[in-house]
């Protein structure tokens, strides 16, 4: 019997984009369901009762939650194409470390930039730039975080590239000026169809952010 794969997601979510990129890298057919997070579907509440968040991958009726765990599940189940994690245990641990670092920093800093103004925004901006410089240092002269090939850390981080424009515009700064190698790396990742067909245009994300700021009363 063919696998039944359903993805509960939300189109601007960087966490959801990670899973979409992984599914595209593995050329897995799946049903995409976009959630209204202001009115969550019974299926989302049933499949992720603990966090009630997207993304959730439902594979033959069984839910897997948390984007980085979903991506690792996909890599372990569909082994025959485009390995995402390294095979060496130590290299796997390093890849998980950097994906976790992205998880701890990107959304937390970026959301504080477009949700705030003044000192709070400035503090978030400084922390984001510092984090991007740490990641740029890790990347070094390599084409990808794992070396010569696109992999788990690249996939975990590049989904936030679609939010760079909104972050820079709300925060009135240039990520490229601060971290040119990170932007060059992101553009390199965008040359892959799995990434370019997944990441929404940055102007579409910006329109979403403007609506969010309006809803939050931030002008
Ligand atoms: N650690 C998780 C984060 C998912 C998340 O925040 N999902 C958000 C949408 S994207 O910002 C979400 O589902 N929010 C709904 C809510 O908080 O009620 C992961 O990596 O999958």
Automatic annotation (TrEMBL):
GO BP of this protein: glutathione metabolic process
MF terms (GO), sorted A to Z: glutathione transferase activity
Keywords: Transferase
Catalytic activity of the protein: RX + glutathione = an S-substituted glutathione + a halide anion + H(+)
A Pfam family reported for this protein in Swiss-Prot or TrEMBL: GST_C
Domain of life of the organism encoding this protein: Eukaryota
EC numbers for this chain: 2.5.1.18
Boundaries of every GST C-terminal domain copy: 88-216
Start and end residues of each GST N-terminal domain: 3-82
InterPro entries: Glutathione-S-Trfase_C-like, Glutathione-S-Trfase_C_sf, Glutathione_S-Trfase, Glutathione_S-Trfase_N, GST_C, GST_C_Tau, Omega/Tau-like, Thioredoxin-like_sf
Family, similarity comment: Belongs to the GST superfamily.
Protein name: glutathione transferase
Species this chain originates from: Nelumbo nucifera
